[in-house]
Write the structure tokens for this entry.
Amino acid sequence: MHILAPSSRAATCLIACLAPAACTDDLNAPSNHYMASEGSADTTGGDLSVQCGTLPRGAIGANFNHAPTVTGGAGTIVVTATGLPDGLVVDNSTGVISGVPTAVATAAAFELLVTDSAGAMANDTCTVDIAPQLAFNLAGDADPYCFGFGDSLLDHIVPGTGDETDIVCDHPGGKGNGGMPTGISVDGATCTVAGTVMDTRLGVWAFIVRAEQSGAEVFVPYCVANATPAAGSYPITVAHTGRDDRTLVPIHRTFNPDAAIAVGVPGDPLVTVLHEGACGATCQYEWKYFVSSSPLDLNDASGAKKAVVVDAALYDDGTGNVGMRHGLTLSSNAPVDAEFKARPWVANVRIDYCFAANAVDCDTETDAFEQRKNGFLELSLVLTPQ
């Protein structure tokens, strides 16, 4: 599956199919020169001429800017163009060609015409290539569905996409972009994640890395995991997507951009938390959860809080250890907002657990829960449009 950039930064930035320190791709951006006084095309005499020069490659969704060379002429120079690629315009006073291309074109030809105050005219035929939107390869069946340590977006650019200028990466934060654990950062120059997970919570953190090129933005899921929970904490395992060994793998689902979303069915995902040993004549368990800001709704249409941790039940592993099992559901009440319809986004679910012989010792409404809790899970979801 290709991850695409949806638009320039000047417009609403979306992703068209599922991809800032500056990164280099060993292709130098063109050096453009416009021979005219600042903000004017007035010249000082001589034969009027215009030269297109070598135009940089453009790309759908990327800001384009090129200044042809105008010399000679008398008085004020007026520059016009015919046949410009869709999305581009010419500044009549400066001759600068700019805009955001909206269609792919190969060796697209257009005409530049200059006139001066004396009626002299000159023209030149220009050609320009407009490439597809910047895109990155991430196979639809990738498991896990995210890049991780050692993966650079620069190594996964779909050939022939983007405008070949520098790519800059960061983690944007905010709604739908998830969060990184303490100790992890994004290297803007290499578009990789680096560091060591300092959180002792067991599980996987999914988050979005944003790649920007000439104002076009691509949003790509990354994930990092921690397989070593806090010493002495409850053992936790997660099964989902038809497999049992999913504790360190984010849940990946595709969604219909024009329909409501629901993630989670009975038994998938399935979280097992063990107390390891006797818990008393009647073992009590409680939990608390936090869901990162995402396009999913935590309240139903009437405003009532939805259940996220569902189907909780006491569990006995057959060896004398007791614990609990539960499912997980997250949903939207309606199709997601426009900004998420054509780009991947993530949600992080953090769950804390408590076991005790007496319910009062794990009361989530008092400090008892915080003092006694001893199970800590990070479970992430990655959603991509169909």
The first helix runs from residue 367 to 372. DSSP finds one helix and 26 strands in the chain. The chain has two domains: 31-131, 135-385. Confidence is low (pLDDT under 50) at residues 5-44.
